[in-house]
Design brief:
145 residues, alpha+beta, Aminopeptidase, 5-stranded mixed β-sheet, N-acetyltransferase domain-containing protein, acyltransferase, Acyl_CoA_acyltransferase, Bact_Acetyltransf, GNAT_dom
Length: 145
């Protein structure tokens, strides 16, 4: 049985394991303080939001997202982070997390849900090609430091 819903205070330890797995996959290091701050921001669910997938009561997947204004429409939802525990892959966890975020986006009356992934993330892209459309955009980041 797979349950999808908001992150709960009791998810803190497992959430951090999954969040660290996500950050390691993308070779991004952040401090313990940043994990702590992010956790409390996600629980507050004001600017950023987090949901979890629970399999037999155990948190096995996470998604972090935010809603934002858009110049050309009512707004959009950006799915910033999506990660599934390696042991739970193949159970449809990522697909269900995406579907849940899509439903929350529809409930707000927003017409667009989007996300980024690395070009060589073939496993994830195989799923994304089934549930969304690749529109050919390339992302650039300008360093501000």
């Amino acid at each position: 049985m797979l349950e999808i819903g908001p992150l709960r205070e009791q998810d803190r330890e497992r959430w951090e394991v999954l969040a660290r797995g996500y950050k390691a996959f993308y070779q991004t290091e952040i401090s313990d303080e940043e994990y702590e701050l992010t956790w409390w921001r996600l629980l507050a669910a004001e600017e950023v939001h987090g949901i979890g997938a629970r399999h037999e009561g155990r948190l096995v997947g996470i998604a972090h997202f935010l809603f934002h204004a858009n110049v050309w429409s009512a707004g959009a939802c950006y799915l910033q982070d999506l990660f599934v525990d390696e042991a739970a892959r193949g159970l449809g966890v990522a697909r269900r997390l995406i579907a849940h975020v899509a439903e929350l986006t529809r409930a707000r009356g927003l017409p667009r849900l989007y996300w980024n992934t690395k070009q060589d993330n073939a496993t994830a892209r195989a799923l994304y090609d089934k549930v969304a459309r690749f529109k050919g955009f390339v992302v650039y980041q300008h360093g501000l430091d």
